[in-house]
Amino acid sequence: MSDITPNDLSDRVAVLEEIASSTKQGFAEMRTEMRQGFAEMRTEMRDMRSEMRDIRTEHRSDYRWLLGIMLGGFVTTIGGFAAMLGVMAHGFHWI
């Protein structure tokens, strides 16, 4: 360690200062990139939420349509059964 001259020491300090400066600049760039990435992610999340709302609305209307068809079929079946019983009752002179 005694071989180090003051000139050599100042050169080493200059290199360390340059490394510190580039590291600081790199961290600043990384911070900027991360902020931009988070902003893009927030925008994408907003878009995804909007799409999910649209899908939910579409599924809800499909469900209501399907429920209407099922209830209509059930009512038609019960009505047909009642009509058949009415015809049988009339044919067998139950009424």
Topology:
Elements: H1 6-91
Give a nutshell description of this structure:
This protein has 95 residues and is an all-alpha fold.
What does this structure look like?
The protein is mostly helical and 95 residues long. It is built from one helix and no strands. The model has no long low-confidence stretch (mean pLDDT 90).
How far is it from the N-terminal to the C-terminal residue, by CA?
A: 122 Å
What is the helix tally? 1
The total tally of domains equals: 1
> Can you tell me the residue ranges where pLDDT is under 50 for at least 5 consecutive residues?
none
> Whole-number radius of gyration?
40 Å
Helix and strand composition category? mainly alpha
Order of helices and strands: H
Tally of extended strands? 0
Largest sheet geometry: none
**Helical coverage, percent range:** over 70%
Shape: rod-shaped
Strand content: under 5%
* Average predicted local confidence, pLDDT: 90
Provide the descriptors you would attach to this structure in a database record.
single chain, about 100 residues, mainly alpha, 1 helix
